[in-house]
Write a structure and sequence with these properties.
alpha+beta, 9 helices, 6 strands, flat, disordered N terminus
Length: 283
């Protein structure tokens, strides 16, 4: 990743802003669900949406909401069942009910630091996990190997949280808050940031920085993702070629995105797509 100016952030406000970021993400997902209801009817639009989600901010995480992984349940629930619950509950198997189970999310496990945290310690966890997040994304050349990313991230997050808070409490909120805050910071490392101030106190919460995209393509860069046409159509399966243009020039050409139709909706078959180039085209 290209060198960039470091962001400055008041640590005490860090956890609070991380929660606000998570709320903003959830709000964006409501809009996403509404628009995807119609986009899903067209394989070319779905392929473009999938790639666009990734390239604009390096967000391969939310791109999975366009894929077969999300056809039966919300992606957040998929992560809970397959990665978080097996850690929280002893002997839990994906698909089991959690009703009546006691695990690491039991309130009795919360220590004094957890009960009294004003966001500072949560911010410290987020800050400590950021280089772990970046390393996992870069080592795996993106999010295609999501299993390795989620498994290793959660394992490290447990250790970091226990060291910072001094107890073994762990729940799904610990994961989503840290992971989505890291995801947002990673996106800003690509797009750059503007100076930001707290509306009530006037305290500067973010210092302007130059992102990797800006360094490579200029301050006013523009990324456009377009369909290059259907390359293969086999009934309920098709492959759409997608181009990524930056400032009117093709940086990625004819990236194949395989989709499968279920009912009236098209889903990206993430197991048949290699998105690694979308994380390296700017380097």
């Amino acid at each position: 990743m290209a060198d960039k100016k470091k962001k400055g952030l008041n640590l005490k406000l860090y956890g609070i802003f991380a929660i606000l970021v998570t709320a903003a993400v959830l709000g964006a997902l409501t809009f996403f669900t509404y628009t995807t209801r119609y986009t899903a009817f067209d394989p070319e639009k779905m392929a473009v949406a999938y790639v666009d989600t990734i390239v604009q901010t390096g967000d391969g995480y939310n791109a999975f909401k366009d894929t077969l992984l999300s056809k039966d349940m919300k992606f957040g629930d998929y992560i809970r069942q397959n990665y978080i619950n097996p850690v929280v509950y002893e002997n839990y198997k994906p698909g089991d009910s959690t009703k009546g189970l006691k695990g690491l999310n039991d309130e009795s496990l919360k220590g004094e630091k957890t009960l009294g945290d004003n966001g500072e310690l949560e911010g410290k966890v987020i800050d400590t996990m950021y280089p772990v997040f970046v390393s996992l994304v870069e080592t795996n050349n993106g999010f295609d190997n999501y299993d390795a990313i989620f498994t290793q991230y959660i394992a490290e997050l447990q250790k970091v949280r226990e060291e910072v808070f001094g107890d073994k409490y762990f729940d799904d909120e610990a994961f989503f808050t840290a992971f989505e805050a890291n995801l947002a910071a990673y996106g800003e490392s690509l797009t750059g940031t503007e100076d930001e101030y707290d509306a009530n106190t006037g305290v500067q919460t973010k210092i302007a920085s130059v992102g990797a995209y800006q360094e490579k393509f200029g301050e006013d860069y523009k990324i456009e993702v377009v369909s290059a046409g259907v390359a293969k159509n086999e009934g309920n399966k098709c492959t759409v070629n997608v181009n990524v243009n930056v400032n009117g020039q093709a940086e990625v050409e004819n990236l194949p995105v395989t989709l499968q139709k279920i009912g009236r909706s098209w889903y990206v078959d993430n197991t048949a797509c290699d998105t690694s180039v979308l994380y390296t085209f700017y380097k």
